[in-house]
Amino acid sequence: MIVDSHVHVWSADREAYPFRPILAHVPAPTEAAPVKRLIADMDQARVDKAILVQPSAYGPDHRYLKECLEAWPGRFAGICQIDLRAAAPRADFERLCADGLYRGLRLNTIRQGDMSALTGAQYEGLFAVIADSGLSLSFHMDIDQAPVVARLAQRHRTLPVIVDYLGPHIHKRRDVEPCLDLLASEPNIHCKLLCTAEDAANPYPFPDIAVFYRKVLDRFGPSRALFGSDYPGAARICDYEKLIAWGETFPGLGAADRAQVMGGTAQRLFGLT
Fold first, then answer.
1. CA distance 93 to 129
2. Cα separation of 143 and 166, whole Å?
3. Which residues contact 144 (CB under 8 A, 6 or more apart)?
4. Is 266 helix (H, G, I), strand (E, B) or coil?
5. What is the phi/psi pair of residue 122, to 5°?
């Protein structure tokens, strides 16, 4: 089974689904990325399932994501998001997950500086309820926030933590190994292998971004790594089939390891059948 663990979709109807961005540095999309286009691309590339991640451009409005999950329950699982700056983030999470649609929560902490407040008492209830729910916790983060994420993973051992996207500059940095070592030392932390084609300086198969993800695989191993295409952004650089092939042919993966990265890890983390 092939599972694409990181895709976004949004509607062409701006009036029915207006953008309400959470991240100031991420501009609102100018092109549509409807779910039916994704399904056609998945069929062409023989991708069985995908994890739909709530776009930051929609902010707290999960209506489009919810409609997609309800319409194609066998094809998709969903990751919701909340704004940590909201008045009651725990209540927001519990409200979103009340209907059982989502398999995890994503937090956007990238470019937010020191996030050590996440280990304080004000957020303890939020992380406890996520752990109790059996869902996963993903971070769209800066690599320098690794100590905070590691402490949360230590505190909540039953909580699967996923390092999601680390920003476009991660491939240019040469000081990331200590942070990767720290994250990988916690057995409940996982890391995505994202085909972030938009961040690549070289053409397909994007050897410059593969260098960083080789470091990830060396530390986390295939059982704690999961492929994601970064659709639809990456699909503007090359077609979706090539994005999938990037993961399937990633250097140094044998058949069993490839099966883990391309689907097995995601199946386990998100409870897919």
1. 9
2. 6
3. 179
4. helix
5. -65, -25
- Let me know: does 80 contact 98? Beta carbons within 8 Å: no
Query: Structure tokens of 69?
Result: 């999950």
Residues paired with 251 in a beta bridge: none
* Calpha distance 66→78 (Å, rounded): 8
Check whether 25 has a pLDDT greater than 70: no
List 51's β-bridge partners, or say none: 77
Three-class secondary structure of residue 51 per DSSP:
strand
Centroid of chain to Cα 76: 14
Residue 29 banded pLDDT, cuts 50, 70, 90: confident
CA–CA distance, 253 with 182 (Å, rounded to integer): 23
**How many CB atoms neighbour CB 65 within 10 A?**
27
Place of tokens 């397909």: 204
User: Which residue's structure tokens are 């549509």?
Assistant: 32
Q: What element of type H or E holds 7?
A: strand 3-7
- Per-residue pLDDT tens for 126-181? 999 999 999 999 999 999 999 999 999 999 999 999 999 999 999 999 999 999 99
Map tokens 């199946």 to a residue: 267
- DSSP conformation class of 33: B
Please count the residues of the chain.
273
Give the DSSP letter string of 196-241: -GGG-SS-TT-HHHHHHHHHHHHHH-GGGEEEE--BTTGGGTS-HH
User: Taking the CA of residue 59 as centre, how many other CA atoms within 13 Å lie in the half-sphere pointing to its CB?
Assistant: 12
The whole-model pTM stands at 0.96
Task: With beta carbons less than 8 A apart as the criterion, state whether 140 and 164 touch.
Answer: yes
Domains of the chain: 3-270 (3.20.20.140)
3-state secondary structure of 132: helix
